[in-house]
Amino acid sequence: MKHDDRKFEQDQTVAGLSRRDWLLNFGSAVILSGFAGMPGESQQTEHAVATALPPGLYTPSMDHLAHALNHEGLFFPIPPGAETEFVRPRSGPFLPQAFSSEEFLVIRRLVELILGENLKTAPAQTVGAPETLYDEVAAWIDLVVFSGPRVRAAARNLTPEQRALAVAYFTREEPVHELEIFEPERICKEGLAWLQQETELRSFRSFLAVPPAMQLELVSSICDSRPNLAVSHAGTWFFDFLKAEAIRGYYTSQLGLKELNYTGNSFYGQSPGCGHRPSSDHWTNPDV
Fold first, then answer.
1. How far apart are the first and last CA of the chain?
2. Scanning 20, 87, 97, 230, which has the fewest C-beta atoms within 10 Å of its C-beta?
C-alpha cells in the first residue's frame, strides 16, 4: 500500500463517503468517465461523486429485500417510511391513464388474442387485484404508454457520464438511443386508428363488435405470420409493440413466473441450479 493510500484510509471519507462506499457506488461510473485514479486525485472524480444517479436508479436496500422475502402474495404490507412504491390493492375499478375506457377494452381484447384465450381466470383471487391476467397485462401496457413521455425526457436528460454508464450496462448504444426516441403513445394512437378503419371497412362500428373469428383474422393480418413480412404500417407496428409488452407483462406476472419455475427472491444454502444437464453433443470435456 502506498503512503497516499494509507493517508486516504486514515481520512476514511471523501465527500461524505467511506472508501468502500465510494468504490461500490461510483466505481463503474468513474471508470466509464475515463478516470483511473483514487478519490481526491482529480477534479473529474469530485464531479463524478457529486453527480446523482439517473432517475429510477438507487442503491439497493437490504431492508426492502428482507421485507419482500418475508411475505407472500400479490401485495406487501408497506413498512413505515418506505420510499419504495409498493403495488397497492385497488379500491375501485381500474381507470386507464393512457387510453380512453373504450380504447382500454380494445387493448385488453387484443392482449387476450395475443396470449391465447386459455387464461380466463386469475391465478389468485385477491381482493383489489385485477380480475384476470388479461386485465393485469392490459394495465401494464397502459402504464408503459402513459410513462412514455417521461421515460424519453429522463433518457434525454442524462449527463454524459450517466449515459455512458447506461451504454455500458446494455453493452451497446442502440437500447439507450431507443429509450430517447421511443414513442409508445404515438404507436398506439396510430395503431388504434388503423384498427378502427379496418373495422369500419368490415361494416362494424367498433372492434369489440366484430365477431371473434373476424377479430382473429384482423390480428392475423398484422402478426408475425402475415403473408408478407416486408410490408409494415401502423397496424404491424402496433401489433409488434403489443406483443412485446404482452409477453413482458405475462412473464413478470405471478402466473408467468410460476410457468418459468422462477426461483428468485429466496435465500439458498447453495445454488439450486437450473435443473438442466447439457447434452453430450455440447459437453465434450467434463473436467473443464
1. 36
2. 230
Most confident region among 9-23, 66-80, 170-184, 273-287 by mean pLDDT: 170-184
Give me the count of residues in the chain.
288
- pLDDT at res. 278: 59
Cα torsion for 71, 72, 77, 79, to the nearest 10°?
30
The crossing angle, in degrees rounded to 10, of helices 160-170 and 174-181 is 120
Q: Are 183 and 148 in contact (CB under 8 A)?
A: yes
174-181 and 133-156 helices, crossing angle to 10°:
100
7-16, 74-83, 167-176, 198-207: least confidently modelled range: 7-16
With vertex at residue 175, the alpha carbon angle to CA 174 and CA 177, rounded to the nearest 5 degrees, is 65
Q: Please report where in the chains the cell 380466463 appears, as a residue.
A: 120
Residue among 182, 179, 206, 202 at smallest CA distance from 193? 206
Of 120-124, 153-157, 183-187, 261-265, highest mean pLDDT: 183-187
Nearest Cα to 253, choosing from 85, 115, 133, 126?
133
- Compute CA 91 distance to the chain's CA centroid, rounded to the nearest angstrom: 25
pTM score over 0.90: no
Please provide residue 47's backbone torsions phi and psi, each rounded to the nearest 5 degrees.
-65, -40
Task: Please choose, from the candidates 251, 240, 224, the residue with its C-alpha nearest in 3D space to the C-alpha of residue 140.
Answer: 251
Would you call 39 helix, strand, or coil by DSSP? coil
**pLDDT surpassing 60 at residue 215:** yes
- Strand ranges for 212-252 from DSSP E: none
